[in-house]
Amino acid sequence: MFGVVFPNRSFPIDISTFVQIDTFHWVLDMNHFVGEAYDQIGEMCIFLLNNFTLPPDKALAVYVQSPGSPFSFCGAVTLARPSAVLSLQWPEPGSAAGDSAPLSAKIGISVEDAASLPSLDVAAERKIERLAMKVGENLFNFMQSFCGVDGSKLVVPMDILDRWFKKFQERAKRDPGFLKSFAL
């Protein structure tokens, strides 16, 4: 059906390592695999095996769950995209109460309607989000160096955005690694 590899951590793992919950859901208990160091697993390659027939409108969705947190979508594979290296963004461990609170981290796999899933390129979306946050932080730090205080208000020169943007563009032209440092 499908296989999984954790880069630099494992040999290929097939479906038999996962616990099958029902016809369309499987779970890998990370406690058995890496103990409490689940958050050190940052990537996962998932691939469809040749004998697995997934309907064209379906996807094999991948989710991660930290102890006490809900499952969080990471990405998916389809017949059109039969393999993917997914970034595993583990949610912060929660404090879910009751007997249903998971005691270990898990990776969940499920067959779902492809149309109902978020974008299949979650890693790219998260990189864009980090890029935007770092550019915003750069702007904030630049503006902060020119701030004055007028009562309870911060006062900045009117041309501060133009000055920042020119400086940002000049640095990007001078230093090819400058923008790449934002995307890490």
Automatic annotation (TrEMBL):
GO terms for cellular component: cytosol; nucleus. InterPro entries: Hikeshi-like_C, Hikeshi-like_N, OPI10. GO terms for molecular function: nuclear import signal receptor activity. Residues 19-117 form the Hikeshi-like N-terminal domain. Residues 128-180 form the Hikeshi-like C-terminal domain. Pfam families: Hikeshi-like_C, Hikeshi-like_N. GO terms for biological process: protein import into nucleus. Belongs to the OPI10 family. This is Hikeshi-like domain-containing protein.
